[in-house]
Design goal:
One of its GO terms (molecular function) is thioredoxin peroxidase activity. One of its GO terms (cellular component) is cytoplasm. InterPro entries: PRX5-like (IPR037944), Redoxin (IPR013740), Thioredoxin-like_sf (IPR036249), Thioredoxin_domain (IPR013766). Its EC number is 1.11.1.27. With 159 residues, the chain is of the alpha/beta class. The protein has a single domain, classed as Glutaredoxin. The chain has a 5-stranded mixed β-sheet. A two-stranded antiparallel ribbon has the order 1-2. A two-stranded antiparallel ribbon has the order 6-7. Helix 3 links the parallel strand 4 and strand 5. The longest helix is centred in the middle third of the chain and has 20 residues.
């Protein structure tokens, strides 16, 4: 079942890159006591994600944070090494780049995408959510290809 506004973020452990390699980061560490804008992409370095989705958040990071968001997090069903390299390639220093390598958190959210027909395996749907102290206040899932309801500009209008 897909998570919805009003639901609590499920407990999970993701990966981010630390000074000496990948480190665990729990959903409590990410969301507890904070206002977080989390967006997810089907895959790092993929065309739509690299040319449109992530850049919108990078360009608008200061405005988003000025509107009261503590953390802007980008997640994909990729490992922490890939997410770190993609973040560096995209100048995404202001964003928390999260790897959901096995897709466990994505599955717990009910937002999986079956990309096996394209050789991608199980991935995340493209979505964005606002979360306040662990509770989802807004969830926008893209209904198909393209970046509209999960764009930085759309999410900024909700702040």
């Amino acid at each position: 079942m897909t998570i919805k506004a009003g639901d609590t973020i499920p407990a999970a452990t993701l990966k981010t890159m630390g000074a000496e390699g990948p480190v665990d980061i729990t959903t409590d560490e990410i969301f507890k006591g904070k206002k977080v804008l989390l967006f997810a992409v089907p895959g790092a370095f993929t065309p739509g994600c690299s040319k449109a989705h992530l850049p919108g958040y990078v360009v608008n990071a200061d405005k988003i944070k000025a509107a009261g968001v503590d953390t802007i997090a980008c997640m994909a069903v990729n490992d922490a090494f890939v997410m770190d390299a993609w973040g560096k390639a995209q100048n995404a220093e202001e964003l928390l780049m999260l790897g959901d390598g096995n897709g466990d958190f994505t599955a717990a959210l009910g937002l999986e995408l079956d990309g096996t027909g394209f050789g991608l395996g199980k991935r995340s749907q493209r979505f964005a959510m606002l979360v306040e102290d662990g509770t989802i206040t807004h969830l926008n899932v893209e209904p198909g290809p393209g970046i509209d309801v999960s764009s930085a500009e759309t999410m900024m209008a909700l702040l």
